[in-house]
Amino acid sequence: MMKSLLPQSQLRRSAAAAASAAAARSSGGASGGGGADGVSSDAGAGGRAPATSTFWFLLHALCCLVSLFLGFRFSRLLFFLLFSTTALYSSTSSSSSSAVLRATTTTTTTTTTTTTTTNTFTLSFAAGSNPPPSNPSNHSAALDDAAGHTQSHVVVGRHGIRIRPWPHPDPVEVMRAHRIMERVQEEQRRWYGVKEPRHVLVVTPTYSRAFQALHLTGLLHSLRNVPYPLTWIVVEAGGTTNATASLLARSGLTIVHIPFPDRMPHDWADRHATENRMRLHALRVIRERKMDGVIVFADDSNVHSMELFDEVQKVQWMGAVSVGILAHTGTADQPRLSEEDKQNMPLPVQGPACNSSGQLAGWHTFNSLPFTGKTATVVGEAAPVLPRGLEWAGFVLNSRMLWKEADGKPDWVKDLDAVGENGEEIENPLILLNDASSVEPLGNCGKKILLWWLRVEARADSKFPQGWVIEPPLEVVIPAKRTPWPETTTELSSELVDTKPDQEDRRLSRTNRSSRSRSTTKRKEN
Amino acid sequence: MVGGRVGRGPVSAAALLVAACAFAVLFSSPVGAATAAVEVDGGAAQGNTERISGSAGDVLEDNPVGRLKVFVYDLPSKYNKRIVAKDPRCLNHMFAAEIFMHRFLLSSAVRTLNPEQADWFYAPVYTTCDLTPAGLPLPFKSPRMMRSAIQFLSRKWPYWNRTDGADHFFVVPHDFGACFHYQEEKAIERGILPLLRRATLVQTFGQKNHVCLKEGSITIPPYAPPQKMQAHLIPPDTPRSIFVYFRGLFYDNGNDPEGGYYARGARASLWENFKNNPLFDISTEHPATYYEDMQRSVFCLCPLGWAPWSPRLVEAVVFGCIPVIIADDIVLPFADAIPWDEIGVFVDEEDVPTLDTILTSISIDDILRKQRLLANPSMKQAMFFPQPAQPRDAFHQILNGLARKLPHPESVYIKPGDNRLNWTAGPVADLKRWK
Fold this sequence. Notes:
The complex is a heterodimer.
Chain A: H1 7-28, H2 38-45, H3 53-70, H4 74-83, E1 87-89, E2 100-110, E3 116-126, H5 171-192, E4 200-206, H6 212-224, E5 230-237, H7 242-249, E6 254-260, H8 268-289, E7 294-297, E8 303-304, H9 306-312, E9 318-320, E10 322-326, H10 339-344, E11 349-354, E12 360-364, E13 395-398, E14 440-441, H11 443-446, E15 449-454, H12 484-497
Parallel strand pairs in A: 4-5, 4-7, 5-6, 9-14, 10-15
Antiparallel strand pairs in A: 1-2, 2-3, 7-13, 8-15, 9-13, 10-11, 11-12
Helix pairs in contact in A: 1-3, 3-4
Chain B: H1 13-16, E1 70-72, H2 81-86, H3 97-106, E2 120-122, H4 142-156, H5 159-163, E3 168-171, H6 184-190, E4 200-203, E5 218-219, H7 226-230, E6 242-247, H8 266-274, E7 280-283, H9 290-295, E8 297-303, H10 312-318, E9 322-326, H11 340-343, E10 345-346, H12 355-360, H13 364-375, H14 377-381, H15 394-404
Parallel strand pairs in B: 1-2, 2-3, 3-4, 4-5, 6-7, 6-8, 8-9, 9-10
Subcellular location (chain A): Golgi apparatus membrane
Main location (chain A): Golgi
Keywords (chain A): Cell wall biogenesis/degradation, Glycoprotein, Glycosyltransferase, Golgi apparatus, Membrane, Signal-anchor, Transferase, Transmembrane, Transmembrane helix
């Protein structure tokens, strides 16, 4: 459908069109056929006697053939140059390029309403690349004296298609456009977005392990993008460590780093319980310090969308959002789910369920039946890790709900001190309520999933460099006699052979061992 | 033909709009005679809309009831009802204003049954309802139909001959108005129907110094279905992330196989220059999310097609997207009531290759101001023909326009010795009887 109007294609197309159009035009007569120059051909053809019409037809056919060859409407040019009644001839000299030929012809016709109309036809034939912009602006303003009607400079008829020589965007302009859009969006947020942004209190339980830096860095970047004032409350199991502290210090956010005395256990069930206690501990701190805002439970391995933070601004007392559950399997061999299991596999979503009038009617929970017996028990095991009933991450609290005294605090909220004292299992925040039906469903009544729950961990004993800094630096000493290449293959093979400690290694080896080599192979000195 | 877009249906105002609460800051307008002054209000509270005031003053919110009286001629149904009954598609296309104006006037408070009291006379003739199977109106019989209607009413009532039609108005929403042709050269050649020489024309076409735009005509927006647009609204805090948006033809291979005629080459120029520009989201597709996308754009292009007007202007105004009007000398709807150059961006056709430079060099304050003006609910209301009619909608703006032309000058009445209408002027084919 898109056709380029470069002259090469114009040659082909107008050739075909010229023949048919020209024939139609010539036989069109006074009322004009489909051609746009019907008006002009009126002036030209109007006064002809029928006897000479064959002559004109033949002439016209000749012009068509010439047009086929040349590639533009030669016949029209000929007609107007030779036969138009009042012709104002103005030719614009061609530009420096010799391949460009331009002729401008102007004719005037008088219509019945005593208004002078001018048609300008511009033909340009460029053998070069892009056709130069042709401006059919009207040179016949001087002709306007009829009826005192101001001449319109808008001309009817065929116009050139203006293409600038460098059609690519200018990077400076692109940047300006982006700045404009940013500013427009800011205004939009100001008019239609949240009127009074509330402080966001993010509660994250964490502990030092191989994947901690991965998870915390991701969460850190998400939180940095939140456009509301934010305080990040990080509870660390096993006491605060320098590694965690330095990671948090680099974030540029307001941090409250709270130590939790117990160490994080190695199996998932206990880990979940410990995390719950850590969160409760954070809530107590919030209560003590009378921190004001919306509490979001952001686990370090979860992924949050920015819309979540926009949505939580709307919470009154306690809200629930839909969480996408990504049950991580870890290894290439997925648990073989039976066909039946696959059929019954529900959507991996946890969150509020609404009835048709938008009221909270129940809860969607993750169906763990297909995974029974195949889940991981120990942290770092290569098996699916499943959430418990309802995850804390799917709930949002108003911190005033936790205060001892707050205006308007509803009576269906239990006092925080009464919770968790007897060592009972604190599965989810609903335990803070007397009546679970007053929870507000957020995110379009739970239809929009605003965050994803995921647990990805390495084995508890997996090694990683402290603070992800290699200290001392690696040293590789290579004997001068030999090129390094055999040594590197030796190094590799020595790692492989690590699993077969009793096998003699007949390959060449280095004289000095690297400080990191743990090979126990007998090495042959050369 | 314009674009090929099919016309659409009605709306309720309230749901569309953010209530205009207060007024924006002082702004002085540099203006020539025809353009507008925006009203200054020291009210100061932060508002996201701004008051609109055109060259005729702050008239968008005027109520025409009580300011004029309109007599509706009871023409035989072959001129109106029977035509619609034969082809009800006429109620949905973009020329449906003529039908809805008639229905509105029949039950309006400005209607008077006593012609002696009337200031204006309205003859309901549906000239744009002869549709091809594809739905495009053919104007070939329209001059004869109009002529036949005028002959009928000049014989039955004396009011036409009293003024030769100077206090009558007609709704002619076709491509080139009362020139009754879709091809511009033919339309110019025909000119406005001679019998309508003295009447007031309410039309969608408007171009300065053009044969088909009479002095004193009222330009109206093309009919757009409010319900359809209403159904596609998205939350207003959805960030506008498209810079320039356009959907439509760039080349009309069917009617203009050579190229260079359609849109005077402006649309083709747009495509060739900006098809690879990431800021310009332009294509010929018909996405299902067309209305939603417009609400996510900062600028919406409204280039001319075969005629300079287009329903895109209405859509852009409704969706708060700043219209970029690329049509030389165009006269926009209700130009005396709405200060279009404060609201839209006008680009000459010859400047299309530098459109990106033009748009990115508009100051951000101007852009925000235009968006505030567009957010004004009166602006959006004035573009619609809702069923049933609502205050400040397009019907009322038309009546306001007619009211502003009152009182009639003495010259409307024909005195002896005056130049009478020539009933045999125009092409011979037009003089044939219609039906």
